[in-house]
Amino acid sequence: MGEGEKSGGDPQTLGRCRKCGSIYPVQSTASGELRPIGTDGVCECGNDSFEPVSE
Ligand SMILES: [Zn+2]
Description:
single chain, mainly beta
């Protein structure tokens, strides 16, 4: 219960496009996938699969 409904903004992480390697700030969806912020949910290359980046 109470999952993902905090006010004041969600923590952002970085994700890397699995196809071209571009890095985007991403947020996790309810299904556990990574979605880039500020786009339609896809990379500029058209790929929509991202992997987490650990710094
Ligand atoms: Zn890409």
